[in-house]
Amino acid sequence: MNGRAAALAKAAQSYVGMPFCLHGRHPAGGFDCLGLILTALADVGIIAPPPPAYAMRNSTISPLFAFAEELGLVPGAAPFRAGDILLGRTGPAQFHCAIALGETDFIHAHAGLRRVVRTPGPFPWPLRRLWRLPPD
């Protein structure tokens, strides 16, 4: 198992219960899904440049694919592993990312519940991308 990936999953779990805030990047002010991932990555030593602009609904998300590559993330495939970064399509022009805890269960900033949550079970949205940290 990749030690940094396990640390990433653990870092994400430490933020469960923190408030949701669109474009949020800090526990005190809250997180959106990308902010949660960027903060957890920083916790394991991966400091990201500012992400490309995005909104709650996006006609294109291709800039995020290039951003993931800039961060050193590599494409992965199911089954999910702890520390995988998942990007799903939650609705028309709406995308959401999460950090897997394993084949089931994931951590994400839930806009509807207004906080970071651990969601049990399989990833509920059509998977658009899966990225992994490179091996240690």
TrEMBL record:
Keywords: Hydrolase, Protease, Thiol protease
NlpC/P60 domain residues: 2-136
Keyword match DNA-binding: no
Transport listed as a keyword: no
One Gene Ontology biological process: proteolysis
Highest taxon, organism lineage: Bacteria
GO-annotated molecular function: cysteine-type peptidase activity
Record-stated family: Belongs to the peptidase C40 family.
UniProt-recorded name of the protein: NlpC/P60 domain-containing protein
Species name: Altericroceibacterium indicum
